[in-house]
Amino acid sequence: MGSWFANVRAPKEGWRLDIVSLLAVIGEGSMEAHMQPMTSSWTCILPRIMPAPQALLKPSRPTRMPSFPASVVGVSNGTFVPVLNFFPSIIHPIDDLPAFAFKLLQIKRKSDIRPSDAEPTTSEKTIVSGNDAGGEEAQIFEPTVRRRESTLRQITKAATKVLLSAEPHIPTKTFSPLNVLSVISCFLTIGLLIWAALIEDGTACVALGSISLASCIVGYGSWWSPILKQRVFHGYVPAGDVVIRTREGAFIVVKCDEEVARELYTGTEECHYWTSTKMYRVLVGIGTFLLMISVVLLGNCDFPMQAAIGGSYIALNGAFWLISLLGKDAFWDMSVYECTDITPSDAAFAEESHPPDVEGIASYTRSLWYAIRETGGETAWARISGAAPQTKEWRDWLTEAGEKAKVSERYWPAVERRGVLIGTADPAISDSIHGPSREDSGFPEQHAPATQIPPPATR
Hints:
By secondary structure, the protein is an alpha+beta fold. It has 15 helices and eight strands. Helix 6 (177-198) runs antiparallel to helix 10, helix 11 (364-374) packs across helix 13 (392-406) and helix 13 (392-406) runs antiparallel to helix 14 (414-422).
């Protein structure tokens, strides 16, 4: 027993790696960024060494996913949300959109099942066709047809009820980098434990066991699943198309049904945890105690195990840092949604300018006109979301833009009419050389007065 655990203080001889206990808690910044996708998978409960396990030792857990500043408004229902949810930002990232950009997207849920989509089988088609023929065979099978139709309606109704009762769920990818790294670190920990046992370093065995148990306990307390909002009543509703406006003045028009709009845009992305809040706090307390014991023991391991454990933590920190360079779509499985870019060719490059024509210069007004045009001339959403200033001149411009869009006039001079109705002194200059005017910026609520002093001619 004396060879496994030292009973006296060893003299200082040569190199020591007492700093290994510090390496175990370095890298909290990277772990904070990976905390939610990592704890959304069952791999979070694997016993393993993990950089900065204190990142999971929080007094409270997040109740929803992070959101991003943007204006999201329903075209038909007028529902306004001042932020963009987390999962739609993976489908169409808004950070990559330049100022005044425009996109028209169509998003469908691949698992959608509707009674109207069900087609009769070959045998049912044969029976129905015989019934239409009015022959003797049709009269014989008429009761069978009725029974099969009744059974088909009952099955369809039951399948639809089961589908609608299931909560929308977006899991992490099975082979996401975080899941793979969690499994690798688990096997790495097992290898370190075997090595520590072979060289009879009992301190390293206890240290690795306690820190692995701490990550397992805290991981279980933080294990969660993202749940999306769904409609409770499933009567007829209009299309759930939404318009997204960024602070830079870019627009995204999304064509979708109300179910998709509720799940992705207007609903709240909630975090469903597998343990209660009280149990989570108990597990965090146990994990904190085990982590403190581990830090003390790591500094008292023999030199070979300190070198092995320190090298492992350095490698894991580097791996988590490399993973942070990947996009969010590398971790979350968004395959349940199908996104198609249907932006028309005459609005595909709204962020680009083609002077000297004033209508060819990229501007907030032109992108706003594209959004009104592709929503069928609806303008109520622009007023609700604050996409246009609340002045009489802008209301007149919106009314005219809506009328032109409803008659399918795609090449209406939106910027020129804005200059006429609102009184911009020189829209060609204010939209191009000097950047967007206060009326034409991504912040329309702070609009300029009706009369502006033109810039100096020597500019």
